[in-house]
């Protein structure tokens, strides 16, 4: 199929929910991707933060092949070993209580929201169900997680949305205090707002908000769908904020490319969702859990996480050293970085970077977002930075 034929078929048969870049990607190796015409690209996207071990990772492919030969899916009506191993790896890595596996980030957040509401219902009865999220946040595309998302542009068309959400300004304790009332059961936030623009929260704010919630038995929920699984240089980003949440959600990087999410609760909340209160057909299947086990065994070591921080610092400094007036600053942590550029210039820069063999993402209105595979090599970073020099220097 030529690119034009592929494009025509796709436009005929697929709903136009995405404006795609004009290339068809065919294969990858580490942090390098090739399109159907054989042109190579440094992948600074990881498929939106998913392929943390890069493309064609030997260990991951071995684990998946081995599991596919055994059994891919049996449903949650039976015990399977990969699910138990993945859950243990997560829980013991950070002193949490128990895990529920889902298939995506939005579903993980749905589970987190359900858990928080039931915790409050069981303890305080009806009416204490409000969840406060932050302005500029992003929590998913289901009807409930759209409403949890603190951006007006997501609250259109699909009425009626789920009730019981309110939005506080990020880094503003007074606003959080004002909005938290007797009906509030939880506060939910991303440590670094990803889709919102790669906006890290202030450490002092997060610590104060966590303490404030703890004192009122308002559950503190952290959405680590994008920031989790080593992305920022610790297994979970909240660790670098010196706090521990009541519930944490994750997805994207967890399966290294296969769809899996999870909601993980502290011991106090671990048994809120009992038999019959929550479920999923695909969630926790042995295929995806085998991937998660491999990802966690590679990513969750002090050496690997240290390297993520070092590579992140290296990339950030290299970008800043380009010294272009088009680069207004670099935000983020580890290998989750946002380059602030002019809103009007951004689309042109992204297209030009692709032309020069570098794939990047955007976030917010004026940010180029970088989420490279965590295994990206220094050589691949240098190649990407040389291309950036040409593009930003023009
Ligand atoms: C991507 C993302 C989601 C949604 O995840 P899906 O897998 O697309 O449903 C939720 N929260 C955050 C912070 C995300 O970055």
Please characterize this protein's 3D structure.
This protein is an alpha/beta fold and about 400 residues long. The protein is about 40% helix and about 20% strand. The strands form four sheets. The chain has a seven-stranded mixed beta sheet, sandwiched between helices. The chain has a four-stranded mixed beta sheet with strand order 1-2-3-15. The mean pLDDT is about 100. It binds pyridoxal-5'-phosphate. The site of pyridoxal-5'-phosphate has 15 residues, from helix 5. Pyridoxal-5'-phosphate binds next to helix 5.
Brief descriptors of the model:
single chain; 394 residues; alpha/beta; Aspartate Aminotransferase, domain 1; Aspartate Aminotransferase, domain 2; 2 domains; seven-stranded mixed sheet; four-stranded mixed sheet; globular; binds pyridoxal-5'-phosphate
CATH topology of the largest domain: Aspartate Aminotransferase, domain 2
* Known CATH architecture of the largest domain: 3-Layer(aba) Sandwich
The percent of residues in helical segments reads: 25-40%
Distance separating the two termini? 35 Å
CATH C-level category of the largest domain? Alpha Beta
**Strands of the largest sheet, in order across it?**
4-12-11-10-7-5-6
* Rg computed from alpha carbons, rounded to a whole number of angstroms: 21 Å
Shape summary? globular
Count up the helices.
12
- Sheet-strand content, in percent, reads 15-25%
Count every beta strand, where a strand is a DSSP E run of 2 or more residues: 17
Q: Total domains, how many?
A: 2
CATH H level, superfamily name of the largest domain: Type I PLP-dependent aspartate aminotransferase-like (Major domain)
Structural class category: alpha/beta
Mean pLDDT reading: 98
| SSE string, helices as H and strands as E | HEEEHHHEHEHEHEEEHEEEHHEEHEEEH
């Amino acid at each position: 199929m030529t690119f034009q034929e592929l494009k025509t078929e796709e436009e005929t048969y697929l709903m136009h929910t995405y404006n795609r870049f004009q290339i068809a990607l065919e294969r990858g190796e580490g942090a390098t991707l090739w399109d159907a015409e054989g042109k190579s690209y440094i992948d600074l996207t990881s498929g939106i933060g998913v392929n943390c071990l890069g493309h064609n990772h030997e260990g991951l492919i071995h684990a998946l092949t081995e599991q596919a030969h055994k059994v891919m899916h049996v449903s949650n009506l039976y015990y399977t070993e990969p699910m138990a191993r993945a859950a243990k790896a997560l829980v013991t890595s950070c002193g949490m209580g128990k895990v529920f596996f889902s298939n995506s980030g939005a579903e993980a957040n749905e589970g987190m929201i359900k858990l928080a509401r039931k915790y409050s219902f069981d303890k305080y009865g009806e009416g204490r169900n409000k969840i406060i999220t932050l302005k500029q946040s992003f929590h998913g595309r289901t009807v409930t997680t759209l409403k949890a998302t603190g951006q007006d542009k997501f609250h259109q068309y699909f009425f009626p949305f789920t009730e019981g959400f309110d939005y506080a300004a990020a880094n503003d304790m007074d606003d959080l205090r004002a909005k938290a009332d007797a009906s509030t059961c939880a506060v939910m936030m991303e440590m670094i707002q990803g889709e919102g623009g790669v906006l890290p929260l202030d450490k002092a704010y997060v610590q104060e908000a966590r303490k404030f919630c703890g004192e009122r038995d308002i559950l503190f929920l952290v959405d680590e769908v994008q920031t989790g699984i080593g992305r920022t240089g610790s297994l979970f980003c909240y660790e670098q904020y010196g706090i521990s949440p009541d519930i944490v959600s994750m997805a994207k990087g967890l399966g290294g490319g296969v769809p899996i999410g999870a909601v993980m609760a502290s011991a106090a909340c671990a048994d809120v969702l009992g038999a019959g209160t929550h479920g999923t057909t695909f969630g926790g299947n042995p295929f995806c859990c085998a991937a998660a086990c491999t990802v966690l065994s590679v990513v969750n070591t002090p050496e690997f996480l240290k390297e993520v921080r070092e590579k992140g610092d290296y990339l950030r400094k290299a970008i800043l050293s380009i010294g272009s007036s088009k680069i207004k600053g670099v935000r983020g942590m580890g290998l989750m970085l946002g380059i602030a550029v002019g809103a009007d210039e951004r689309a042109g820069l992204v297209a030009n970077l692709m032309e020069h063999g570098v794939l990047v993402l955007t976030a917010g209105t004026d940010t180029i977002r970088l989420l490279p595979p965590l295994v990206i090599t220094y050589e691949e970073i240098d190649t990407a930075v040389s291309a950036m020099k040409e593009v930003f220097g023009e």
